[in-house]
Design brief:
The chain has 337 residues and is mainly alpha-helical. 74% of the residues lie in helices and 0% in strands. The chain has helices at residues 2-29, 44-53, 60-84, 106-141, 146-160, 163-177, 194-231, 234-241, 246-269, 272-275, 278-283, 289-298, 302-330.
Length: 337
């Protein structure tokens, strides 16, 4: 297992380099002008000086190599210095990936907005898993029952209805009509006592449940299908013939084997915590990574878009590896040579 993990990590390095180059090329060829939002009264020669100051006057391969150095060397060194309070080299003159819009380091912007995304979108994914797995197990065990039919209907609705519609519907019901929950997420709110904690829970409730419903609808369908496939296997009939209790057969033998294909869905869904909730963050005004990406795209802030997109790609590669490792933990028959 250890050797397999090392090989996969080594193979991930050239894969990520190719992905980073493709992202850089596509965004560089995109018809985005960082001076497009400036007033029309600014002369063309001034616009050209601004473009040169942003590094756009250099060839493509030079800009790409500088971005690689800034992202893979300078930014990690800067994080190490901040976390461990040490000085490595000339930190004051170290070039970092800077946003064209704010002239601030992109990594600092991401670190600043990361907690909001993890609180809202990350919590919704955890809640979705906790809801989906029991529903999928019970629906498969009681196939075609009333519970299974209701669960299937709710799952189809939750997966088919887009999150922007569900979010707006919740705002109309719980904020406008009933007035129970705030419609806008206050990112400046700090939890200091029980009343402030209750307000934090209330403002997290709607965006979290919108995403949790969408995630649970997808995961529960996979869980149900995997359970049904394993319930008809010979080892289940053998376990029952040996006199094992039904709970042990269901929750120990069948559930463990059924989780193998579901792990793929769960692992590949984790990067959606950072990229798949863009619309929901816009609806509830959550000042997270999704909103940062939208603002960067609208303002032609190419360094921010490049960095965020590449981080999403890194998460996909990383959680693919984690899913493969979990296969061997769930099923001892799987061996990596």
């Amino acid at each position: 297992m250890f050797n397999y993990t090392i090989r996969r990590l080594l193979f991930a390095v050239p894969t990520l380099l190719v992905i980073s180059f493709i992202i850089f090329i596509i965004l560089d060829l995109a018809p985005n002008d960082p001076t497009g939002n400036l007033p029309l009264t600014i002369p063309p020669e001034v616009r050209e000086k601004i473009r040169i100051s942003l590094g756009l006057g250099e060839p493509l391969h030079i800009r790409y190599m500088k971005w690689l150095q800034q992202f893979f060397i300078n930014e990690p060194l800067n994080l190490i210095e901040q976390w461990f309070n040490v000085t490595i080299g000339d930190s004051e003159n170290r070039l970092r990936v800077q946003s064209w819009a704010t002239r601030s380091p992109v990594v600092d912007l991401i670190v600043e907005r990361m907690p909001q995304t993890l609180w809202v979108v990350g919590m919704s994914y955890v809640i979705g898993i906790l809801i989906a797995v029991p529903i999928g197990v019970i629906s498969a065990y009681k196939q075609y029952s009333l519970f299974d039919q209701i669960g299937t209907f709710i799952s189809m609705v939750g997966f088919s209805v887009p999150t922007f519609f569900t979010g707006l519907l919740m705002i109309v019901i719980f904020s406008v009509t009933l007035g129970w929950l705030p419609s806008i997420y206050d990112t400046t709110h700090k939890v200091t006592d029980l009343p402030s904690l209750w307000f934090q829970i209330k403002q997290m409730l709607m965006p979290t449940m919108v995403l949790a419903l969408f995630n649970a609808a997808q995961i529960s369908r996979f869980m149900r299908a995997s359970m049904l496939d394993n319930l008809s296997q010979d080892y289940v009939r053998t376990a029952r013939a040996k006199g094992l209790k039904e709970k042990i057969v269901l929750l120990v033998h069948v559930l463990r084997n059924s989780l193998i294909p579901v792990v793929t869905v769960l692992a590949l869904g984790v990067p959606q915590i950072f990229s798949g909730a863009i619309i929901t963050e816009q609806i509830f005004r959550v000042n997270g990574l999704g909103q940062l990406l939208i603002i960067a795209i609208q303002g032609a802030d190419i360094p921010t878009v490049q960095t965020l997109t590449f981080i999403f790609a890194v998460l996909i590669v990383l959680f693919n590896l984690i899913a493969d490792i979990l296969y061997g933990i769930l099923d001892p028959r799987i061996r990596y040579e």
